[in-house]
Specification:
- This protein is α+β, with helices and mostly antiparallel strands and 227 residues long.
- It has a single domain, classed as Aminohydrolase, N-terminal nucleophile (Ntn) domain (Glutamine Phosphoribosylpyrophosphate, subunit 1, domain 1), CATH 3.60.20.10.
- 39% of the residues lie in helices and 24% in strands.
- The chain is built from 6 helices and 10 strands.
- A 5-stranded antiparallel β-sheet has the order 8-1-2-9-10, with helices on one face. A 5-stranded antiparallel β-sheet has the order 3-4-5-6-7.
- Helix 4 runs antiparallel to helix 5.
- The termini are far apart.
Length: 227
């Protein structure tokens, strides 16, 4: 008995892959990254004490992801390895968010194009500069689409609503406290409150030489939200 070859319209296949990825990404909790004079703030709701959605890639570069944890953690580890090798072979200054974002975009595009199941993730590469105007925020989608954001970036579901809230709140001069409060308010929405222990918060500190990434512990988060 011969097996029939079933034809699938390429446009339909791409559309179904995209719908599948977007639907599953939207089920997770969104993430906000925003620029402020002291650096770059990254915040998300995350009840796990060990499975981080926000991590350090290199000296002044951070990584964040939403969606399926195992898939974006694979991307994170590949980025760390690439950055370490490049920094060792050349110099630490040669490790840039732009090149990392391009590599991530190429990898995700290849997976989306050639694999049956696309990665169900959206990721962010952020680099803090010496001045606010030098900060970089690159958002990479499940299909490899690369977007350079200004002022703030939103990952995950309800991005339009969260972006509207951030647009209303954002100022060029706000401090870490104001940026965090606006970000958490945008993430939680008007009908609920996210307690400090359920938040994952990190900062790329502009004023720190060398490694700029630091996690903001629960007591500091609580103090920033209530003071």
């Amino acid at each position: 008995m011969s097996m029939a070859n079933f034809y699938v319209n390429p446009e339909q296949l791409v559309r179904e892959k995209a719908d599948f990825a977007r639907r599953n990404i939207a089920r997770g909790r969104p993430l906000v990254a925003t620029i402020f004079p002291g650096g770059i703030l990254l915040a998300t709701e995350n009840t796990s004490p060990t499975l981080y959605k926000i991590s350090e890639i290199y000296d002044r570069i951070a990584f964040a992801g939403v969606g399926m944890y195992s898939e974006f953690d694979t991307m994170r580890r590949a980025g760390v390895q690439h950055a370490d090798v490049k920094g060792y072979q050349f110099s630490r200054e040669d490790v840039e968010a732009r090149s990392l974002a391009n590599l991530y975009a190429q990898a995700l595009h290849g997976i989306f194009t050639h694999e049956i199941k696309p990665y169900e993730i959206e990721i962010l590469v952020a680099e803090v500069g010496g001045e606010v105007g030098d900060d970089l925020l690159y958002r990479i989608q499940y299909d490899g689409s690369l977007v350079e954001e200004r002022r703030f970036a939103i990952l995950g579901g309800e991005s339009e609503t969260i972006a509207e809230h951030m647009e209303e709140s954002f100022t060029d001069t706000w401090e870490l406290r104001d940026a965090l409060r606006a970000s958490v308010a945008a993430l939680s929405g008007p009908d609920r409150t996210i307690p400090a222990p359920d938040l994952e918060v990190a900062v790329l500190d502009r004023g720190v030489p060398g490694r700029a990434f630091r996690r903001v512990a629960d007591p500091e988060v609580a103090g920033l939200l209530t003071d």
